[in-house]
Batch of 2 targets.
Target 1
Amino acid sequence: MAQSGSADDRLQAVVRLIASNMVAEVCSIYLLQPDNRLELFATEGLRAEAVHNTFLALGEGLVGTVAQTARPLALSHAQQHPAFAHRPETGEDPYLSYLGVPLLRSGRVLGVLAVQNATTRAYKLEEMEALETVAMVLAEMVASGELVNLAALHEAELVDDRAMHHHGVAISEGIALGHAVLHQPRFHVTKIIAEDTGEELGRIEEAIGQLRAQVDAMLSGDNLGRAGEHREILETYRMFANDRGWLARLREAIESGLTAEAAVERVQNETRARLMRQTDPYLRERLHDLDDLANRLLSHLVGVPLTAAGDDLPTDAIIIARNMGPAELLDYDSDKLRALVLEEGSATAHVSIVARALGIPMIGRVEGITDLLEAGDAVIADGDTGEVYALPSSEIVDSYSEKARFRAKRQAQFRELRDKPAVTKDGIAVSLTINAGLMVDLPHLHEAGADGIGLFRTELQFLIASAMPKLSEQQAFYTEVLDEAGDKPVTFRTLDVGGDKVLPYLAHAKEENPALGWRAIRIALDRPGLLRYQLRALLQAAAGRNLRLMFPMVAQVSEFQAARELLDKELARLQRLGHPRPLDIKVGSMLEVPSLAWQLDALLPLVDFISIGSNDLLQFFFASDRGNPRVGDRYDLLSPAVLSFLQHVVAQCGVHDVPVSLCGEMAGRPLEAMTLVALGFRTLSIPPAAVGPVKAMILELDAGKLADFVNERLSLPDSSLRSQLAEFAFDNKIPL
Ligand code: PEP
Ligand code: MG
């Protein structure tokens, strides 16, 4: 194989050698072409003219069947097989028996290697295995371009073949052009034939031992994700890792002469081929588990780490993974991270929260992407639309480069507004603060020129930890946040877990309606120790400085009072112990449950401020699950109903002279923010990336004029004022 000469000559030499060793009259190699046809590339025994002139479709003839099923086929009466297709140009008529094996690499069929005999011959299992081993070597050489210069032969088509356009779910906005980094790198086995089978058997035993220990540790350890689903997956892992059939097949493959790595690859190829034929989605899903397990086994064998986080990353890394936890994403050098593309993933997953915090685009639910991409492939990820392009054409690259330049230009314009106060044309100052929750958010506070942090989601520290953060850890974290924020105020929201934010280490029964269930302040009041610890950490971190805190999901005044009492107990404790207390403490309530809006006369005298959590509030207001795509956008926030409701709250707060802000996602969208200012909001808390666009809008707004415009329309029967508001913005040249 190492001999020089043209690609065809070398392949020809290979088939001749195989034919003579297998004592077969015919040996042929077919390679899968970009148009999904199998082309005869070399043959010993068939007519030489047929080379490059014989084509079979996937599924056509015996060769097509082997390629389509990705399984070997051994027949003593080939012509009797229902798929047999006669190709007169090859002169194969006299050959009765047939043995074909697929050329597989990382589960992908690259072609078929077949031998034929004139007599009716029953091929032995060892012969089939030997041919499969040769096919593995060939596949490796074909893929590496060593044997056939595929790239030169089919350059244009090959690029097209893997060039892909996928549509996933947009999870974190932004656009990235970069290069694929496979989070769990696929190992390409290059050494296939073992020198010492005994040694290889020893290596596989050892690696399996390590794998089992790893799976056991995952199951018993701290880093077990949420109970239930996650646990089930790991249990499946354990089952596979101890599956005797799997282990026996690995040993057999080594005994047939393969290295331990090649044996893992070979067994995995067979498993893939078997599972791919399954129609049962559950079983097909298990293929991912087995792939992951095989990959882990290879990583133990080769002794390299399981994820690419520690590797030499390209400076424009687009991480491709089936799924990952938030901590895994944080393991990557954030200077080089450009985007994250997952096969799974959802907007509320913790890794998504981290991706948004890091400001990188993220796309989820891109089916099959980990199998389709190779490390180093050029990729474009569009977090605005959910589009992913692999090996994009130059036109697509050009258009996206243009889009990225446009975004950068807008960002630069927003940066210029950084130090400008957000004041409307009629002189109303609006305070723009940001939503945050992790240390990585803190630099945005200053970069965006925000006035403070209006919502600090303290649960994120809890969500990304594998065990309940200790008092000292919580305190250290809050201290760091306050240090980083400097003189800008931070409003800490106490733990808001439950609902879609389940802590793996906090026992939580499955609920029919988690959004309406045991969450946030309900948990805090039932488990007061949890809240008291957090309050203690906050009070200690803020010693000698100002502290602002608020409670989530308050549905009735008594809940606020009970939480406030816990705070007072903690303050009394500080006093008792002679510890320093914060200079000033402001305590607020979130308004996320509509019932609270009808208790404002009782509540407002007790609070220092109100912050409206519109994400939750509006799903309760319309009784429409914000995470359910069928109803998520059924109702519009810019409806007279919502706007009247918000106006009522603002007016009540005005009467009691209590500051009110809004910290849900809606405040970050310029059209919605514009409307909120018209309704009387003077503080908005928004994602850092929204500060520029919202400020640009405010600078061009005449709030009084818009307030009149909105008031005139609040009693209309319309389900939404969106288009009328957009028209107002357009007519008044307000940038949205
Ligand atoms: C909200 O509900 O609007 C809110 C800010 O809280 P979260 O999104 O964290 O539930
Ligand atoms: Mg909420």
Target 2
Amino acid sequence: MDRFDAVWVNARLATMTHGRPYGAIDDGAIAVKDGLIAWVGPRAALPDGGEIQHDAGGRWITPGLIDCHTHLVFGGDRAEEFEMRLNGATYEEIARAGGGIASSVTRTRAASEDQLYQSGARRLKALMSEGVTTVEIKSGYGLDIENEAKMLRVARRLGATLPATVITTFLGAHAMPPGFEGQSSDYIALVAGPMMDRIVAENLADAVDVFAESIAFSPEEAAIVFEAARRHGLPVKLHADQLSDQGGAALAARFGALSAEHLEYASEAGIAAMGEAGTVAVLLPGAYYFLRDTTMPPIAAMRRHGVDIAIASDCNPGSSPAVSLLLMLNMACTLFRLTPEEALSGVTRVAAKALGLNDRGILETGKRADFVLWDVSHPAELSYWIGAKPAHRIVRGGGILEMSP
Ligand code: DI6
Ligand code: FE
């Protein structure tokens, strides 16, 4: 029996492990067996045993990219609200007037499962064409039992039919649905009770998320949903302090959340608590950009308190209609002043941590053989170009993807 199924040689590896910048190995090799990395290191030390040899042509190889925060399953779009905002309305005003998330809820409820699958697949394929091999998808535009289950079934089907790992997150507490005006405690009881029971019974969610915000739910309401998630053994995450300081970062930390997202208005104390808890900060520069926010997330505090930073697209119809994770790397650097190395860690090693996955995100023996060959001469180019398509070949579970560009 061959020791390896295939060996990739003549590569420069950005392993994204600690130590050297990018965990770089100059003249590197990766051996694959049964979908996993069986060996990785300098080519000169590569043991014998590769049946098929692939020449990477001196290209850089990174782990497959991970988009750890998206809402890419939804009906319709919100281009008309984009126009309203350009004519002077704010995101919050549109939301309070019954638009915003609620208008996507109407369109998502009206869409069939096949329609949602088709439009979601288009967006997922756009992400994948840039080297994304793992993506998280949230519910949150159904907001009743049937439609939340429908969205999550579509997300599961995307993962089952397309060559990407899909992690699903139940975000029933995304906004108040029509019919529950002024009865948020009733709606939260539904989300934390029958809705979550059904989602769990059908194994539709890998995690639970809440939008804690003045236009959504209070920290106390988020805590009720988190308690229910805990009873079901599901990890939690939180849309925290995006538009105002709600104490979301500290709440996420208190529940040992995998991640807290957005965080533009998070306090230093909240960030410190996240550092203590090991909760990842997921930054979403697409939403910051698209809503023309001017309050930066407290990056310096995150660095000071040892909070790991991930970057994601937040792909959604209202605040970040983004289907390019590489553009988010560029924005993380230009808008948030992250270094290109921090940005790349944020869509590989740290993004895996934000999803609770320890089988991917770095090039290391035993991890999944998900990696990308790039037509770049330095990994910083992945953050530098705008609109380039530098992915040369995408390998997932050891196999070359046919859709490789
Ligand atoms: N924060 C966001 O940026 C998205 N969801 C959330 O909780 C926006 C969702 C939308 O506007 O449709
Ligand atoms: Fe989001």
